[in-house]
């Protein structure tokens, strides 16, 4: 079997780096980005702040106590989205196949390129081009598969690169902490630690069957990753990925309150589907079909988000621009597109934790009791949003069904 060559690239402390491009005085100083009041949450922090024990998702009040000298900045999702697109364009132009897994993270398949170029040279030149044209620091790992390359990127940081030669994957991973394995979160780490497992090498020396007995299917995956085994492919990135819903009415209507209520419910549910699938959208489209079958759509690019309070006003704003008050409406629809992976981090620029906690609480109830178990009052009369998918708690096929 031919050797694969998989590149993983990650923009270093991306939000912080973007802010330093705007204000060079921030370079070398501890930076906290997120909600700016004591009730806020840290979305990102500089390496200088991390030395004090600060990390993302930490309450801003605690971060201030740990690092009193830190400069606190309320994030600007628009700025970060724009810089992310700049990097994406450079990668798109320079490689045959790439996958954008989040706003600041990419995989590139360079397999077979060694027949024409040295893959390490190609990766190095791509990294230099990104840094030169965007001003952003970026690190990469290069190896035979996604897992080893991602871990290598983490070891290369900050602002560096690392290649793990074919056949040396286990030797590279062995001395590292089990926390370096992608998918090993805090709970799994504590469970491994309780078993006396701290280094990846210990897992490498264990029978796979033992890991499976303790952790089930996840145990097999952890064992494979620890041994440098990962057969997953680089999935070509497409900005056409989207989720959408629409409603055709039995009777054409001009009831604006009804129309807006349904649109609100649509946007609210799709936003929940984004969060459940750990996705962010950067493009909102509203569709209106009139009784004469003329169909009109309007879309807007927005900063990456999955937040109701950002998406719902944008949907209603687009509808107001589209709607012709003199015509009966036959169909309305909403689509969120240009999706990338990303959890709550991009939404942590809120001043208060209440909004984030509210989303998490509502999503947990919806996961357990169904999509429409919690909803805004304005959309409550939208008994069905899509005739073909009347909210049975099923996400669109694109998104994984993540349980809380």
TrEMBL record:
It holds the Pfam family IMS_C. It comes from the Bacteria. GO terms for biological process: DNA repair; DNA-templated DNA replication; error-prone translesion synthesis; SOS response. The keyword Acetylation does not apply. It is an enzyme of class 2 (transferase). The record marks 15 as: Substrate discrimination. Poorly processive, error-prone DNA polymerase involved in untargeted mutagenesis. Copies undamaged DNA at stalled replication forks, which arise in vivo from mismatched or misaligned primer ends. These misaligned primers can be extended by PolIV. Exhibits no 3'-5' exonuclease (proofreading) activity. May be involved in translesional synthesis, in conjunction with the beta clamp from PolIII. This is DNA polymerase IV. It comes from Fulvivirga marina.
